[in-house]
UniProtKB/TrEMBL annotation:
Annotated signal sequence range: none
Any one Gene Ontology molecular-function term assigned to this protein's record: endonuclease activity
Originating organism: Marine Group III euryarchaeote CG-Epi2
One Pfam family cited in the UniProt record for this chain: UvdE
Protein's recorded name: UV damage repair endonuclease UvsE
This protein's UniProt keywords: DNA damage, DNA excision, DNA repair, Endonuclease, Hydrolase, Nuclease
SUPFAM superfamilies for the chain: Xylose isomerase-like
Record's keyword annotation contains Nucleus: no
One BP annotation, GO: response to UV
Gene3D superfamilies per record: Divalent-metal-dependent TIM barrel enzymes (3.20.20.150)
PANTHER family (UniProt xref): UV-DAMAGE ENDONUCLEASE (PTHR31290:SF5)
Organism domain of life: Archaea
DNA sequence: CCATGTCAAGGTCAC
DNA sequence: GTGACCTTGACATGG
């Protein structure tokens, strides 16, 4: 079991998320920002080696505007060496990585332009992971998307667009059950037609389910991870007390986590802690484990 | 220099 | 039809 946190480390004094306004886009600004972000990503990797946190979600903002029409810069070649070196370090230390494009990546949208931009965004993620030279156990995690008043049709659109993407994208995609619209059962419908692996999010499951328990949900998604995909990825979090339902906790609720681990006992999965204080909570979880 | 308005992108829901 | 929310900090403008 590998554990980790998403994108940002608050302890090391830099972020691999640095960005700038589109109005100030220039080659120089782009290059200096990417350089900063990759140097910081390297530091995050070092930190994680030191603390034995070997599952890392890499920020989608590492290469700002990478998929935007404004970006004509050949970052793939310009930063090839840096990415290769980070990738080598990942491999030497037996890391697993993932990326999670944001809410604007919606491949089942009825709007063709939205779909085009979404695929372009997936291509960027795929390029990035390919340049790290990580295998297909490194996943690009997305949500199914919108419902548009007809979930069956929306699921059909998802499958159709998924099938139309290049193999390198298909091989890396994974879908996650969300907290409002697409449950584990909905994801399973998609899996049955695409074999796309499913990332189980325990907190989203608490928010939206069809009566299945955590264990039942896990047993459903476990077999969606074929041998080339690696062991299942899980997102772990819990409700932030006295906040909107669905709001992720600021800090780990260790009691909740103990219950979670009791249920997951003996299961082999890699877990990302979607908790706001990031490495701090993960280290606490690790201490417990 | 500092305060604060604003930031590429979509979808859903409350009103 | 419009605006808040997700998430969210930090960029960058203008006083």
């Amino acid at each position: 079991m590998k554990i980790g946190y998403p994108c940002v480390n608050w302890s090391i004094g830099c972020t691999s998320n640095k960005k700038f306004r589109i109005k100030s886009f220039s080659e120089e600004k782009f290059n200096s920002t990417v350089k900063n972000n990759l140097e910081c990503l390297d530091k995050i990797v070092d930190y994680n080696i030191e603390h034995n946190l070997l599952f890392l979600r890499i920020s989608s903002e590492t290469i700002p505007f990478a998929s935007h029409d404004i970006c004509k810069i050949d970052w793939q070649n310009n930063f090839k060496k840096e990415l290769e070196q980070i990738g080598k370090k990942l491999k030497q230390n037996n890391f697993r990585v993932s990326m999670h494009p944001g809410q604007f990546t919606v491949i089942n949208s009825p709007n063709e332009e939205v779909v085009r931009k979404s695929i372009s965004e997936l291509q960027y993620h795929s390029d990035f992971l390919n340049l790290l030279q990580v295998d297909n156990t490194a996943k690009i995690q997305i949500h199914v998307g919108g419902v548009y008043g007809n979930k069956d049709a929306a699921i059909e659109r998802f499958i159709k667009v998924y099938n139309s993407t290049p193999k390198e994208i298909k091989d890396r995609l994974a879908i996650e059950n969300d907290d409002k619209h697409y449950s584990v059962d909905d994801c399973m419908i998609i899996f049955n037609k695409t074999e796309i692996p499913i990332i189980l999010d325990n907190f989203h499951l608490e928010c939206l389910n069809n009566g299945e328990s955590l264990l039942e949900a896990y047993n459903l998604i476990e077999n969606t991870w074929g041998k080339d995909h690696g062991v299942p990825m899980l997102d772990y979090s819990s409700q932030q007390p006295s906040a909107r339902i669905g709001k992720h906790a600021d800090h780990i609720d260790i009691q909740h986590f103990k219950e979670f681990m009791k249920i997951m006992k003996g299961k082999d999965a890699d877990i990302i802690f979607e908790i706001k204080d990031k490495e701090r909570s993960v280290l606490e979880a690790k201490k417990y484990l």
